Fold each of these.
Amino acid sequence: MKVLTLIALFVFCTFVNCKAQRLISDAQDTIKLELTQKDIKNPSKAMILSAILPGAGQIYNGKPWKVPIIYTGFAANIYFIEYNNRRYELFLDALAIYDQNPTSTDRPFPGLNREGLVRNIDYWRRNRDLNYFLFVGIYALNIVDAFVDAHLSAFDVTDDLSFKFEPNFEMLAAGGTVTGLSLKIKF
């Protein structure tokens, strides 16, 4: 008797749910979004524009607010390249002075011996060289951003999320059954 009641309840919930879904879907106003060819951006064109002139691909994609971020990254990176190079050259000159007269007291860094000067030279040269790689990374990120943004220009980002409850009937591996409701999200 319990099995028959559960089957009747399952069939009833399925029928009510389907009927309710039809009523809800018929009652809702639908918004139709049509993308014209003008709205869809060409990823190759955006990539080439950004490769030629950093930020041009972002402007082509309709995101001009990204351009100051790109050029701020370039400017900060150039500043750090120049700063690290100045420090590198300062310690390189100090090493040259030290090698000419190691016992002089009027050296630029009297507290450092030759090994300390060489360590500083290596440190500032390594920082400068890493900033060159970072510069290339910012340039590449600019190109990748334009390419991906153009690809996603046709992506539907509407707020149309729908939830629906459906009855659920599953057979377990151990031989039992589970009856319940499932929540399905459509996006």
Amino acid sequence: MSFFISEAHAQSAGAGAPPGGELFQIGFLVLMFALFYFIAIRPQRKRQKEHAAMVAALSKGDEVVTTSGILGKVTKLDDDYVVVSVTDNVELKFQRSSIHAVLPKGTLKAI
């Protein structure tokens, strides 16, 4: 049966782990967390703050794009909702967080 499964041999008692290996592992984990923080967490928080500032600064008459790609002009604002006029007689109500970007004035006429 040893043809298919190699036999396991115990490690000799004299050969142990090299000294300082635990410190290296802890340092490596700290370095990986720091790298992950600067690559993923910090830029995401920056984007969240910028989006929150943009949504808080919305005003009547702003031309916006929603996350679903709908273009329109802000006609009414509530605490949590915004009403966007898409055409003359069509107004849609969205949550403020669904506003993706504020466009420069005159963009809707140019499109």
Amino acid sequence: MAYAEIPETDARAPALDRIDRKILHELQRDCSLSLARLADRVGLSQTPCWKRIRRLEQSGVITGRVALVDPARIGLGLTVFVEIEAPDHGPGWRARFAAAVAALPEVVEVWRMAGEVDYLLKVVTADMPAFDAFYLRLTETTGPKNVTSKFAMERIRDTTVYPVNTTDP
């Protein structure tokens, strides 16, 4: 899903029962589980489990399945959080900004914020010279009012697992 298309919380989201939430919990931890093992863990037979997974995918609850990669092991040893202040808040600038950051592969997350900064970017690069080159491309293509970069020194916790309640009915 493209940055500009990220929906807000959807009131039409399907109601999830405890079994659906258990499926989500297990798949977030390891989406390579066999269907048989997943079904066993959530207390279903394989066919009903598969139907639930398909329903969760079709309803947009499950948006994809990926392999998680250690950035340092693929030569991306520098993580930087970049705060952007917009020069204006009109739809034209927002659209140009969204297109510009979508074209920068170093940007792995973009958040529109409330508070002192307008956007927060998570950026990964190989090293400081690579970040400098990225920074120049970013500022040339987006024309921000202000940019502040904060360099991560240590990753203490990094997870993609959302806390799903698997105990309530």
